[in-house]
Amino acid sequence: MTSHDDVLEEAAHWLGHGRRVALATVIETWGSAPRPVGSQLAIRDDATFVGSVSGGCIEGDVVTRALETLETGRTELLEYGVSDAMAWEVGLACGGRIRVMVEPVKA
Question: How far is C-alpha 74 from the chain's CA centre?
């Protein structure tokens, strides 16, 4: 498992090499959630990523949304849970909900 520091170090490395980077952070959980608050995923502009916000359940959607934030420059709040149809589509059927903040990172 990649540590929090490793995620941030890799994001800084990518920024230092001229890449655009977004950072996704679990900011809130309810019930059974796959990853705790503070878990992070760094996403590079070519869809390469490091870290985890869901143990794999929703990361594909988070990466897609992160790439969109790199285009718009706007932070997004994403929420996934069992009552949300998207949660079932992306595999979050664990009985909990998570809220993820996705933000473009400035050098």
Answer: 14
As a whole number of angstroms, the distance between CA 23 and CA 100 comes to: 10
**Reported pTM:** 0.84
Nearest to 18, CA basis, from 59, 51, 46 = 46
CA pair distance 76, 65, nearest whole angstrom: 8
pLDDT digits (tens, 9 = 90+) for 70-97: 999 999 999 987 655 555 565 555 567 8
Band of residue 26 on the pLDDT scale cut at 50, 70, 90: very high
Residue 92 near residue 26, CB atoms below 8 Å: no
- Cβ 70 vs Cβ 83: under 8 Å: no
